[in-house]
Amino acid sequence: MPVTFTARHVLEDHISGFEATPNPHHLAILRSPVVFSVLAHAGHESDVEEALDNLEDVHVRVCGPGEWLVVSETVPADTIARQLADLGAAGASFVDQSDGRVVLRIQGPKVRAILAKCMALDLHSDLFEIGQSSNCQICHVAANLARTGHDAFEITVMRSFAGFLFDEICEMGREFALTAGFA
């Protein structure tokens, strides 16, 4: 007998009870972002980085030397895969991580105070500029943090840790009436 499975977001059960109208401090969960991990081969780092910067409608997140995450809400995975394949097998390797990663967007005037409670990275605007990203520990979980606006950040985390991280950030944001919901 065939069984039909319904696709559900890993945070579907965590979000119940948070469907309030967003406050100035809000944690938005992206429903189905496309996330690729890209690793440049030795000697091709600058060529790969330049090619990634030229991709349209994607955000490139630095993970380390010669390693990036490519994130998009609008470009389909097969289109990004084709564009990354054009880099050539000798230049870079890439893997679609869309089903294995969760992207959270947090914003608000006191977002740095919320994040400071659970991480040891200086998020001062002079040091962590808009567009900058870094791998770091958030609530003892390995994640990639990117600054996307004046008071806005995106957190990309492994799917298996997303529930814990979501719960912890919501707890850290209670002081500022942090709301949460799907984007």
TrEMBL record:
Domain (GCVT N-terminal): residue spans on this chain: 56-179
UniProt key word Nuclease: no
Pfam families: GCV_T
Keyword set, alphabetical order: Plasmid
Lineage: superkingdom: Bacteria
Name of this protein: Sarcosine oxidase subunit gamma
Organism: Peteryoungia algae
Upper taxonomic lineage: Bacteria, Pseudomonadati, Pseudomonadota, Alphaproteobacteria, Hyphomicrobiales
